[in-house]
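Dear support,

I submitted the protein below through the web form. The confirmation email said the job was done, but the results page showed an empty box. After a refresh the structure appeared. I'm attaching both so you can tell me whether what I see now is the final result or a partial one.
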Amino acid sequence: MVNDDVILRKIGKLKEYVYELRRSKDITWEKYQKDIRARAFVERYIHIAIQNVFDIANHIISYQGWKEPDTYREYFSVLAENGVLPDEKLSDFQNMASFRNMLVHHYEKVDNEVVFAIFKNRLGDFDLFCEFILE
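What the results page shows now:
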């Protein structure tokens, strides 16, 4: 059986990071552009939220003995193939992996408009992920 305590703890941390991002909704585009601390906060909290998503996915996939993903994008494919995530949301979740890779590997070329748009418009994807995992 999947260790529910591990999953619940990781979901709790994920919700905490998303809460802090939402609590910082006063960060405007103007502030985001000018304030390196605001940019660093938003980037880092989105990054660690996504890492928590991967940790949760990895725990479930490993326990179930499902196909081991070769890439972060494949974590979501494996979850969808096994009925954890709906196919219609697959590309949204796979975009998280692409975004994470851009933050981690191409940090010198981060597109601030993309990061800010995710900060303002895509935090609900984390909520959906938690809902699907807890079903």
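Response: this is the final, complete result; the empty box was a page-load delay. The chain has a mean pLDDT of 95.
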